[in-house]
Amino acid sequence: MSKKIRILLNILFIFLIFWTLNYWEETSKRDPLLDRIYRLDLSLEWDVDGIGFQNDTLVVKVTYHGLSRNPKNGSLLFIRDGKIVRNVTLLPFDDFGTFDLSKDVIALGTYSIKWLDESTFTFSPFYLIAYSPTGSELWRKEFNVTSLSTAGDLIVARGYVRNGSVVKVFDVRGNELWGLAFGENVATNGKTIAVTEKGKIYLFSREGNLIKTIEPWKGTVGSVELTDDGRLVVTFYSKEGSYLGVYSENGSLLWTKNFSRIRDFAISQNYILVYDGALHILDWSGKVLWDNTRYYPLYPEVGIALGRIAISGDEKFIAYGSSEVSLAINPLFDHDKDGIIDEDDPIPFNNGIFYRALLTIVVGIAAIWVNRRELQKSREEARKKYEEIKNSLDSKL
Questions:
Q1: Chain-centre distance of CA 150, in angstroms?
Q2: If you count Cβ atoms within 10 Å of the first and of the last residue's Cβ in the chain, which end, N or C, has fewer?
C-alpha cells in the first residue's frame, strides 16, 4: 500500500475525530425546541393568537396586527402531516385568549374595523364562532369575546358590555344555557365552569349552580384551566412576580411555583407546560422535569420567543407560534436530541452522532491497520538489511 494512501487515511481519521466532536458539541448546546419538524413562517404583521391539537391536526388561529385602513383577514389553519389541509378566512382581528378547542368543536372570537368617517372608526362587528373539526362553520353569534373555553359539549365565553361584563354558557349547537352578569376569565372541563372576578374564583356546575368560591393565593388572578378530574390551574400576578398554582378538585391549594413572567401555559394528562421567556415542563406535583433556560445565558431578561404554546394529546409533540408556526418533538421523548422519538428509533441514541462515530471508528481501524502493516513492513526491511550487513561482516572475518 502506497505511502500516499496511508497519509490520506491518517488525515481523514483526524478530520473525522474533530467532525464528530464538533457535532456533539453543537448538539449539546442547541435548544431541541429549535429542531423543528415543521415550520410555517409568517410576516411580522401577522400573529398567532391561538394554537392547539385536535386529534391528528394542528389548528392555528392567525390574525392581522399590521397598520392598515383595510386590514387583511385572519385565518384558521388546519395543518396535518406538514401540510395546510384547510384555510378558513376570519375577520382581521382578535383579542388574546379568544380561541379554544375540544374534541368536537373549535370556538373563537373575531372582529373587524368599521369606519364611521375619514378619521373615526370602531371595532365592529364582533363574533363568537363555532367550527367543526374539519373547519365547517357550525354557528356564529354577535358577541365581543374576551375569554373563551370549550370542553365536552359546552362553550363558555366572557364578553364586556357597557359598564360591566357578562359570561354566557352555550352548548355546542349554539343554544344559550345560562349566564352571569360578571366575570373576567373563564374555563370549563365540560362538567364544571370556573369564572374569575375581582381576584376570586367561582366554580359553577354545568347547570349554573354555585359550587365553591376560592380566594386567591396571592396577587391578581390571571388565566385559569380546568382538568378533566376537576383540578384547577391558575396564574397569579403580583409585585413579587408571577406564579402558577394548582388546586385540588375540592378547592384546596396543592402547590405554587414562581416564574419570571408567565406568558402562556398548557396542560395535558401528565404535564404542565409554562412559557415565561423559556419553556418549563412540570409534572403534576410541581417538579420541573425539563426546561431550556440553560440554552439562554441572559434568561430571564432575554429568552426565546415562543408565543402561544400547545401540547399534543399523546404528549409527544409541542407546538408554538408568534410570527411563525413551529412543531417540535417533546424533549422528554427525545433524550438523544436527534429529532426522532426514541421509542420509534431503530438505534436508541443520537443517529447523527452514531453514524459519525461509526464512520470515525471504521476509518480509524483502517488507519491503524495500515500504520501497523507499514510499521511491520519497515521492521522486516530493517531486519533484512541488518542480516545482510551482519552476514557481510561475518564473511570478511
A1: 20
A2: C
